[in-house]
TrEMBL record:
Disordered: region residues: 275-298
Range of residues in the leader sequence: none
Stored InterPro entries: EmrE-like (IPR037185)
Species name: Actinoplanes auranticolor
TM ranges: 6-27, 48-66, 72-93, 100-120, 132-153, 160-181, 193-213, 220-239, 251-271
SUPFAM superfamilies in alphabetical order: Multidrug resistance efflux transporter EmrE (SSF103481)
Name of protein: Magnesium transporter NIPA
Amino acid sequence: MSPGWFYLAAMIAAYGVANLLQSMAAARTTVHHTFDPQLLVRLACHRTYLLGLVCQVLGFVLAFVARRDLPLFLVQASVAAGLGVTALLGVLVLKWTLPVAEVALLVLLLGGITALVLSAQPAHSRQLGTEGVVGLAVAMAVIGVLGFFAVRLHGALGSVALGSLAGIAFSAAAIAARPLAMEQSAGGYFSNPLLYLLIAHSIVGQLLLGLAMQRGSTTAAVAAMDAAGAVPAAIVGLLLLGDRIHPGREWLAAVGFVVTLGAVIAMTRYAEPQHHHATARPASGRRPDGARLHPAGR
């Protein structure tokens, strides 16, 4: 059995915890209405966010190692399974109340991921050509421009728009990571332009995700990120990087991918805000867990 399966399971748990912790920190930080990197600096002042960032970096490392053997369509779609971990922890720790539709979609998500696991065939990656490297650089510029305008959106729409852009940025980072993981020496890593594209896309994605979570719904932000991030990586992986599906299970992979994608997209419609947002000078007290904030007079 490929060790990638164990890395994949650990990655799901790490991302689930990271989503929850970063959401709590974002809810306690002044809302930003511009595409301002200073948000990351303010978030970094929260120990909760830093702990969440550590979990996210751990998840990123685990995903990076898993991509050595496992296809991108599986690894990227499995990131969405972390949303189930986030929801479960939110209910148990922060007393979130999830609507019945959201619970049903989480169960559907688990079924889709299971189908992808059964259909995926471990294989090493092919290298990405010069055209692919240039494409990743152009994609970063486009994401930045779209983020400049999307940051002006508010509420659930803002969460979905910014979360989707974060997902595309993380998807580009995953595309860079799959062939980069095949490098055999430190010199090969540091001389490969894919490393720097991976870092740049990850930073942009992190900023966009923080902005998305500030808009109110962690579930909507993360679901939009996962949905938007799964498709580009799956297409590029299958067409250019040598990702494989077990012979005769192509239908299972297709069903699993569609079900997973449909579930996370539907979550952006049915997800409810898990917290009201804190401002620089809150009008009233705040619960320590950040789950709910009640304005004065209520």
